[in-house]
Amino acid sequence: MQVNREICVGCGACVNLCPRLAIRFIDSRSYIDQQSCIECGTCRDACGVDAIYADCRFPDIIMLNATAPSFLEAQLAVCQKR
Amino acid sequence: MKTHYDVVVIGAGPAGLMVAKEMSAAGATVLLVDIKKEIPKVNRSCCTMLINEPNTHGETVRIVNNNLHFEKTGFTVPYTGKFVKLVRSVRLSPGGYKLTMVNRSEGVAHPYTKEVILKNLLDSAVDNGTDVLTETAGIKAENVNGGVRVFLRPACSRSMYEVRCKIAFAADGVNSQIVTGLELFKTRKYFGSFRVASYFLDNVDYPYWDAWVTCVGKGHTRWGRGQIYMVPKFLPYAQDGDRPILDVFCGTPCGMPAKMGLDSFIKEGPFREWFRHATIVHRGACVVNFYTCIMNPVEGNIVVVGDAAAFIETYCQAAMMYGYRAAHAALKVLATGRGYEDYTNFWRESFEYCHPGEIEKALQGFGLGQLEDEALDYIFKLTDNEEYEGYVSENTAPDVMKKAIMGHIDQIRRERPDIAVVIEKHWKASAEDIVQG
Description:
Chain A is of the alpha+beta class.
């Protein structure tokens, strides 16, 4: 995942949600440490202003991500089934 | 900076700063840690920076000499900014009809500027000798013999380092990293997640400058999901003669970014005329994970305060109040070895969401989600010219709303029996239904 730091408003929402603690708060904007990021998309789903996007760092994984529902939608689908 | 402290506070919001200020005033050595560079700067969307109705979260706050005076706990927080007095709480349907709650003498709420509060608290904490570590994340806290190990990581470093203390405070907010690492986290039930985006707008041509406005219904945005709020407030360090700006929020359960809902509301919503000449002066966002409250917010010597322990949030005022109470309980522990019950018992009694049924009640106040816009317009047309005694707080407003609508239920049954059925069902809906709905 990457952050567009022009769009990021610096709310810090993604920082505490990252399961790999890969997101830092630098100069009041989010910054994703690419060596820790596992491209799970949790931060992208959390971002209220859509500043986070996937880039093609691991092409295979991105292909999968592009077709799979986002994390929250998948979770919601499970809840609704129950 | 030392490696051993009496107290480490993770998170410098209203709760954490209050703890740091009170503990350091009493002579304890305190380390305050926050991920931000400038602690008083608020980029998160926040709609709880207001003086709420009497008895919210067990406390009544009044404005005394422009400061915030906490009547029941008995302390004052210095405030040098401006207040907006809101006398109405308005729920708007997409057709522009409304349900209004008023309190003209006392006001339904007084929004203040959180930045000013945070700056004043930070200044007093630093004056009292608190060490402040900015751009540092609190990663984990664990109880060890005779104290707590707190793991910290600076924003630009790969390594963590450890600080020892006697008592640690987790005050890192609604998505607390520290709380996730505690055993008591397992007692919490997850409801869902909300994304929020907000704009501070200037030059809004707006009829509700004296009101807290909640937009109810699907027709406010193109996607029909989420919730819009509008609150007038002053910018940080507004001068005399400055006019308040309008803080417009959009919260949405999932599926689309909150910003899209917000943009849609402003550019193509039913009230777009208000925003034709508006300019955005500030943008904010946040994400809120809904978990049930932590009923016993102390694990060993790790104390959880403010939003970190709450269902969604405490109001800023209550975060300060719980911070104050937790700090004084902790001072008692430092002196005598016990005393956390002062804080935990008070938390359980006073924080409404700890009581059974309160979460359902508050969520029902979010609106009549199951109704179509046409039905909402019909109901709100009935209450359009009426005023009900009430406040903003989600703990009492649902009852007023229920009373207002049920006051017309005979007429609704007669004219629109289909709507009457949905209304009666709504007050029995579970919290999950409402969050997912």
